Amino acid sequence: MSQNAITDGAGEKIANILGRNNVLTDINLSNNLLKDDTGFKFVNILVRNFTLQTVNLDLNSINQHTKDEIYEKLVHNRELAKNQEHSPKKFQTLKKSLEGKDINQKIEQTMESIF
C-alpha cells in the first residue's frame, strides 16, 4: 500500500479495520499523504491490536512523537508474539491481563513477566 497517495480519511479507515485484525502482522503505508490524525489513530488501535508488529509510515507527514508512540506499541506486540511462541497459554493469560490498561502499564507488566 506504499506510494498510493492514501490520505488521512482512507488511512483512518485502514486503521479502524486493523483495529479488528488478528492475522496481519505487517503493513507498509510509506510514502503516502498521511498526517498526524492517521498516526494518532494507529496509536489508539495498537492499544487493542496485539497482532501488528510492523507498521511502516515513513515518508508521510506524521510527527516523530507519534511515530515513537507507535514504535513503543509495536515493540510491545513483538514481545507478546515472542511469549506466545514460547508459551501459548502464558501468552493468552498475559494478553487478557493487559486489555484495557494504558501502554506504559502494559510494557511494565510485560517486562516484569519476561524477567
Question: What is the count of helical runs?
Answer: 5
Question: Strand content of the residues, in percent?
Answer: 5-15%
Q: What general form does the structure show?
A: elongated
Going across the biggest sheet, name each strand in turn: 1-2
Query: How many β-strands, per DSSP?
Result: 2
| Category by helix and strand content | mainly alpha
Distance between the termini: 37 Å
| SSE arrangement, N to C | HEHEHHH
Main pleated-sheet profile = 2 strands, parallel
Radius of gyration: 14 Å
What is the count of distinct domains?
1
| Helical residues, percent | 55-70%
Ranges where pLDDT stays below 50 over 5 or more residues in a row are none
Mean pLDDT: 81
Tell me what you see in this structure.
This protein is mostly helical. It has one domain (8-114). 59% of the residues lie in helices and 5% in strands. It is built from five helices and two strands, in the order H-E-H-E-H-H-H. The chain has helices spanning 8-19, 36-45, 64-86, 88-98, 103-114; strands spanning 26-28, 54-56. The chain has a two-stranded parallel sheet with strand order 1-2. Strand 1 (26-28), helix 2 and strand 2 (54-56) form a beta-alpha-beta unit. The model has no long low-confidence stretch (mean pLDDT 81).
